[in-house]
Amino acid sequence: MIRLFSHYVPRNTLFIAALEAVILSVCVYLAAVLWAGPGEPSSLDRLAIESLLLAFTMLLAMGVMGVYGQASIEGWGSTLARLVAAGAVGFGVVSLVSRGFDETIAVLGVPGAVGIAAAFVLISLERLLVFRWKGAKALRPQVLVLGTGTRAARVEDIVRAQPSARRMDVVGFVPANEESHHVPESRLLDRREGESLWDLVNRYGVNEIIVGVRDRRNGGLPIGELLECRLHGVRVTYLTDFFERETGQIRVDSLNTSWLIFSEGFRRNTLRNLVKRTFDILASGTLLVVTMPIMVITALAILATMGSPVFYRQQRVGERGEVFTIRKFRSMRNDAEGDGKARWAAEDDDRITPVGRVIRLLRIDELPQIINVFQGQMSFVGPRPERPEFVRELTEAIPYYDARHSIKPGITGWAQVRYAYGASVDDSRQKLQYDLYYVKNHTLFLDVMILLDTVQVVLFGKGAR
């Protein structure tokens, strides 16, 4: 994993994206040059720029279609289908946009189509090689876990859950003065008498040590041995940092207040806030105009099938715990909470109307919240705002829950694109772990990634309830 703009990105994903950017731009450029024939140097420069722009648009389309997400490394058929869809979407978008320019874009039309077709054949072959060699043991990092407690035991569970293209090998666990072990005896490394941690690292070819020791006092943490390994170039990572890097979560069960205080992140400054607010104003203003026809049709459908009111207003908890009112298109019956008691939305909830089920599936019910973004009560990206009744319950039940209120809530967020719809305290605990990751690492780069993933979630109807 590489930390890029405060966000962890798999190395192989960056490498594959860069390689495919080169393939796309070169294929489109060569196709355009061969089609146009000999020309002036200035025209060749223009073709190169247009080829790069078209390649960048294609990469965005591939990102939106999930080509660089987890789905892309779990099945060859799924990846191929997404590649074809991304090619059609990307080329179509560029063709539509180009009509607003006076000058013809040379890489469009036949040369662009031929170049993209050739590029996608090469990309398909490259992806086939990736799938063939993604599980090669020689390419996997070798990891040693120091500690055998309940938290350390979770390392192997997380590694097993990883897609094989990102998987590492856990060579074993080394006890660190624990009275009881929570890993199988067979996973304990045989440490010979007098053998140091560095000797074990050498014997097993270890690249990284995960420190999963809870009690670091009274000799619980072998500082001298860890320092020796670190000075020899072995990476040493605390368990909380490992969870953050590999799962995109800050896990509550491995968290302590001192880590929150001293860890890198949680940066807030005027420039960052200004950039985020400027983005929110421009994006919300544009989306209000673009989605107005959809909202008008939705309002008429609700009036025709359910009657008034069209909008559902509800209090939510925002930044610094301030309560504000959000607007959503009504998707439930008027008597959904007739007794005045707040309820989680359940799967196949009988309170949801037929029209409501459709607009929830397509996330159209969330569109009126663009007004909240424009007014500054929300951001496009951030932790989802929760109802005050639930916040009181969750704050008592889940440690650090109130930390999510340190920034503005959002229409979409890291938890929304990484976890299914939450409808219980346990679901809220899982989503909080993603929210804490976002609060710690949020940047414009991460916001853009989340927005791209949100488009995919809407297209494939993930997590709707």
From TrEMBL:
GO terms for cellular component: membrane. One of its GO terms (molecular function) is undecaprenyl-phosphate glucose phosphotransferase activity. It comes from the Bacteria. It is found in: Membrane. GO terms for biological process: colanic acid biosynthetic process. Its main location: membrane. It is a multi-pass membrane protein. NCBIfam families: EPS_sugtrans, EpsB_2. This is Sugar transferase, PEP-CTERM system associated/exopolysaccharide biosynthesis polyprenyl glycosylphosphotransferase.
